[in-house]
Amino acid sequence: MAKLRLKDFVEFTNTDGKLIKAVKRQTGRDWSDFQDLLRNVAACSSGAAGGFCGFIYYSETVAFWRRNRTIITERLNDLAFSLGENTLQMVMNFGGIKDGDFSEDEVGRALYGRYNSDLDWIYNTFAWFALEEVANWYSDFEYENS
Question: Distance between CA atoms of 99 and 116, rounded to whole angstroms?
Answer without folding.
Answer: 20
